[in-house]
Amino acid sequence: MKNTEEKAIELAKLMIDGKGKDVVLLDISGLNSWTDYFVIVTVSSSTHWQGLFKQVKEYIKDNDLQIHVTNKKSPDGDDWNLIDLGPIVIHFMSEQARQFYDLEKLWHSGRVIEVNE
Predict the structure, then answer these.
(1) Cα–Cα distance measured from residue 3 to residue 74, given in angstroms and rounded to the nearest whole number
(2) Which of 85, 82, 87, 88 is nearest to 66 (CA)?
(3) Per residue in 80-93, pLDDT tens?
(4) Within 13 Å, how many C-alpha atoms sit on residue 34's CB side?
(5) pLDDT level of residue 70 (50, 70, 90 thresholds)
(6) Residue 30: how many CA atoms within 13 Å on its side-chain side?
(7) Are 113 and 27 in contact (CB under 8 A)?
(8) Taking the CA of residue 65 as centre, how many other CA atoms within 13 Å lie in the half-sphere pointing to its CB?
(9) Which letter does DSSP use for residue 114 in this model?
(10) Contact (Cβ atoms closer than 8 angstroms) between residue 114 and residue 106
């Protein structure tokens, strides 16, 4: 059975395969009590985000994960969407939102995990 880090790596690779840009995987398990990993990905459009979301739904079926929350952080839903899988949270962000919120800087104490394409 895969551990949570292996699943997070596979989800990050799934984002890369789906043409997500600048995919970053952060281990933030020692920094909070509500999740262990962030997968952060830049998407080009709402259609792109929806396509990646579909791939995530397919992945979770076979990997003992479930969606706790999907959330739109902006009213129109194009800037920042997230999927909370419990121990893994995937952030789908437009380039502008990613620069503005700069989650990597905010969570700079987290460990960046290299994801080989």
Answers:
(1) 32
(2) 85
(3) 999 999 999 999 99
(4) 4
(5) confident
(6) 5
(7) yes
(8) 26
(9) P
(10) no
Average confidence (pLDDT) over 29-40 = 95
Q: What pTM, to 2 d.p., does this model score?
A: 0.92
Residue with tokens 């839903």: 77
Instruction: Please say whether the beta carbons of 41 and 56 come within 8 A.
Output: no
* Rounded-to-integer distance, Cα 62 and Cα 107, Å: 30
96 has pLDDT over 80: yes
Are 94 and 78 spatial neighbours (Cβ–Cβ below 8 Å)?
yes
Q: How many CB atoms lie within 10 A of CB 50?
A: 13
Q: What residues contact residue 108 under an 8 Å CB cut-off, 6+ apart?
A: none
Sheet strand arrangement including 111-113: 69-72, 80-84, 88-93, 37-42, 21-27, 111-113
Alpha carbon of 102 to those of 24, 96, 98: distances in Å?
12, 10, 5
Question: What is the band of 74 on the pLDDT scale with cuts at 50, 70, 90?
Answer: low
